[in-house]
Known about the structure:
Elements: E1 3-8, E2 11-16, H1 27-50, H2 56-61, H3 71-86, H4 90-103, H5 108-121
Antiparallel strand pairs: 1-2
Helix pairs in contact: 4-5
Amino acid sequence: MSILVDHFDGVLEIRLNRPDKLNALTLAMARELLACVNDGLQKAKGMLMLGREVSATDAERWGLIWTVTNDERLVTQARDLARQLAATDPSILGAMKTLLHQETIGDIAEALHREAQAHDKLGGRPPLQC
Length: 130
């Protein structure tokens, strides 16, 4: 199996499993990765469209939210995250956000093309070709 998926302690771990090819991404692997992301998206759509409540714990377990914190740590943790984001180049954050939004829907070949364009625009090396 080229994509390994594991759930533990409310975390979804997705690992590439092609060590013989230095974990180079194939179209099939990209489709598997998108399926993992779309699973959370489908749950979110169902909850929104049906108007059902979901607990923070379930939302985290399903991958709908990134993290859960208690009331006592909320403001401190939010400020820490805000500082970290503020210290990051906004063009990089914007490019990542755009790519993530575009990749939840659409053709995988187009997605890989957009990713290569973003790498080029931001001065990175293009992704490895399989």
